[in-house]
Amino acid sequence: MTFKKERKPLPKHAGPELYVTQKELGEYLGLTRARVSQLQTAGVIPPRDPSRGTPLRSSVLAFISHLQGRRDPKAEEEGFDYDIELAREKHYKAEKAKMDAEEQAGILVPVSEVVRAWSSVLVVVRSRLLSLPRRISRRIAKMSSVSSVRSLLTDEVKGILLELASAPIEFEDPDDEN
């Protein structure tokens, strides 16, 4: 906000609303005429009536309400609660800060890295499983019983799974440019 140093005292008037120019309202509030216009455009204070000017009392009350953090009495009637919204904003900022700290500490991993890592694991699983028939087909052809074929297949699949379980999953470091 742009405040002027000198403020004009408010007139003592209990009657109907007084209307003033934007410049005069600025003098009462310690603002420039341009800032008064901005506040009117933003809906903080009532707009200027072209024939009468700016309503003094309601503009001062609206400006005070704005400074106190309450934007619009109509918004409060519609269920807007400034304190609740402020608390909600603080909560989400704290959650974001916590997530940023966990990401920095390596506790959280971006989804794109998890997808990339699992994709590489699935490529390895696929290649191992597709190579299985080629590797064991001759041995299966020499077997005479179903139980021995089943035993060989089970052993081979378990071997593939053990190999995959012991392989480290590597995540790319987003800070590493290599």
Count of separate DSSP helical elements: 7
Calculate the mean pLDDT score and round it.
81
Domains, number: 3
H and E order: EHHEHHHHH
Strand content: under 5%
Residue windows where pLDDT falls under 50 for at least 5 positions: none
Could you describe the largest sheet, including whether it forms a barrel?
2 strands, antiparallel
Rg, rounded, reads 36 Å
Distance between the termini: 48 Å
Number of strands: 2
Structural class: mainly alpha
Strand order of the largest sheet: 1-2
* Portion of residues within helices: 55-70%
3D shape: rod-shaped
Q: What can you see in these coordinates?
A:
With 178 residues, this protein is mainly α. The chain folds into three domains: 19-68; 79-108; 111-166, no CATH class. The chain has seven helices and two strands; from the N terminus they run E-H-H-E-H-H-H-H-H. Strands 1-2 form a two-stranded antiparallel ribbon. The longest helix is centred in the last third of the chain and has 32 residues, at 111-142. It is rod-shaped and about 110 Å long. The model has no long low-confidence stretch (mean pLDDT 81).
Reconstruct the topology from this structure.
Elements: E1 19-20, H1 22-29, H2 33-41, E2 54-55, H3 56-67, H4 73-77, H5 82-104, H6 111-142, H7 146-166
Antiparallel strand pairs: 1-2
Helix pairs in contact: 1-2, 6-7
Key structural traits:
rod-shaped, mainly alpha, two-stranded antiparallel sheet, single chain, 3 domains
Q: In a few lines, what is going on in this structure?
A:
By secondary structure, the protein is mostly helical. It is built from seven helices and two strands; from the N terminus they run E-H-H-E-H-H-H-H-H. Helix 1 packs across helix 2 and helix 6 runs antiparallel to helix 7.
